[in-house]
Amino acid sequence: MRDEDDQISKLLRLKRYEQPRPGYFEDFLKEFQNRQRAELLKRPLWRVMLDRVSAFREQLTASQLSYGAASVAVLMIATVFTVDMLRAPLEPGGPALAAVSPSGGFGPTPFSGTSGAMHSSFNRLASAPVSQSVLSLEEPGLQEPQLSLRPRVDSASLHQPRYILDSRPASYDAPFDF
Amino acid sequence: MRLPVTGCLIQRLLRCATGATLLLALGFAAVLPGSASGQGTAGEPEALSREVQQIYERSRNSVARIEAQDANGALVGTGFFIDPSGTLVTSYSVGGESFNIVASFGESKYPARRLVADARSGIAILQLEKAAAATPFLPLGSSAELKVASPVVMVAYPLDLPLAPHFGMIAGFDGKYLDRYFVTTHIRADVPVKRGQGGAPLLNMKGEAVGVVISGVDEGAACYALPIEAVNKLHQDYIRFGEPSPGRLGLRVQPAGVASGAGSTAEVRQVDEGGPADEAGIRVGDVIEQIGTHPIRTPEDLLNACFYLTAGESLEMTVGRHGETITARLKAAERERPRKVPAKASRGLFDITLRPEAPSP
Q: Is B353 exposed, middle or buried (0-12, 13-18, 19+ CB in 10 A)?
């Protein structure tokens, strides 16, 4: 046992300075992948797909499946809502909210004239007179800079004009600086 | 015998005639005021309607629909001419940051360029680029002559509808709304407003412009208008300096616990070193009693007194100090103007725009 250890030690000392040529490991990896690809190409595509699907199915658990199903459902609902809102006709005579302040305006809203509970609530907000501070984080007493939360502006509504009426005159928190 | 009988008969007849006359007079007295008031209630609305129609007819060609574009798309508002050279006044939200501005009035449609955009007061002044002839314009009145319950007319374009008159009355004059102070006193008019009417003229019953409609109040049941004097000040600044030139005194005030001898509570809290007030010898603790021709009673009174200051303008200021009244002469310095607000809004589910801090008025 002792002799073996000594021999191994000697061998390691001898091999200590031996290194593979530069790029050996990179080439090795490439070569390995090339061979693997070549091996795969020899098999029919349907066979490769089948192998992959079966391997994937083996890894799947019930919880993962439920997460996936829920995600797909949410995505589908979101898509349906988005498409519905984009296609909805704008309210006649009131297609847009006006400016909320002298420095910026409410953008046009695509929510007017749609149906459904969420849409009707958006309708109320969107078609309300602009003096009503809906969809706005502007509150009296807020120090500027202020946040103005505006309805989304999309490319379809860019063609609809916004009819301007400010929600309040230009106003200030600290007026006593003269 | 006949004579007394005849005399008695005549006396009776006279008495009857007198009684009948009295009864008739009483009847007329009772009936006529009622009928007169009845005629009045039926006639006054018609007279008022005729008056509003006349104002509308006189002013309709001087009011323009302003169409423009900004980073968020097309926008529409109202404006009005204040001189024959095609100078238009509208709200800042309509013409302050927009481009491709087009003014339509009567049958005419002209491109317009921006002369003044003043976010501080909320208005923009535009000018037609190629007006063929002198434009019709509204005479400017005086908002100081207005009182609570004075009748006013607004002529404006609601939404995409044709030009229309709106009748109402002055409800008040406010220096602040929901705890936020205006740059100067605004006219609150009980005139219903709709979208698209930002920048419309508020007219008195002589058909003179007394204000510019800036915003709605209480869901559009009423509106706030900037007094026409403020518009005139900015226009004059543009004519003299090419831009608004607001002045400042270089001091801050606070409400004093005890009023001065003149009844003012506008106590100087801080004086900017090297500023006009400092150079004029105004000290912390002085109570401002008058600025120029404006008597001061509360700190809010300085809003009006200082809004109309122009940089470089000399004025007298009266302060109370330890029971004495001191008059100082000072020259208003230039006030830093509000930074231009970026017009382009971010895109997303909601647009969130961060506005830079507006300088104090």
A: buried
